[in-house]
Amino acid sequence: MFLRSAFEMAQLIRGERRKQGLTQAELAARVGASRKWVVDLESGKRSVDLSLALRALNALGLRFQIGTRDNRRDSQEVSLDQVVALAGGRVDPSERKQGYENER
Questions:
Q1: What is the mean pLDDT of residues 80-86?
Q2: Among 101, 58, 100, 103, CA closest to 79
Q3: pLDDT at residue 13 greater than cutoff 50
């Protein structure tokens, strides 16, 4: 799946959480965050901490992959730890780039 916005990521996370039969509180516990944080994440709030969002994807068994827009097949796999480390644990919303790819 090719994601173009925080809202699309929010929909993906909410849908997968529901598909797995998890409550917001259960996902929050897996991530190490509050239930309110999950509510904010699932509503597409732009100021959600990137490292926690990546943990939520991981907790749901979703794979995060970054690639170029021009050649989606030529994308490289990176670990969530690498992404968080490169982002310094947080990414300012003005620095985010669209085009996150999540393939299962």
A1: 63
A2: 58
A3: yes
pLDDT of residue 59: 95
Q: Which of 54, 58, 29, 24 is nearest to 42 (CA)?
A: 24
Tell me which long-range contacts 13-17 makes (C-beta under 8 A, separation of at least 24): 13/41, 13/42, 13/53, 13/56, 13/57, 13/60, 13/62, 14/42, 16/60, 16/61, 16/62, 17/42, 17/60
Domains of the chain: 2-101 (1.10.260.40)
- Spatial distance between the Cα atoms of 11 and 43, rounded to a whole number of angstroms: 8
Three-state DSSP at 12 gives helix
pLDDT of 38 over the 90 cut: yes
Residue 99 has pLDDT above 80, yes or no: no
- For the chain, the maximum distance between any two Cα atoms, rounded to a whole number of angstroms, is 39
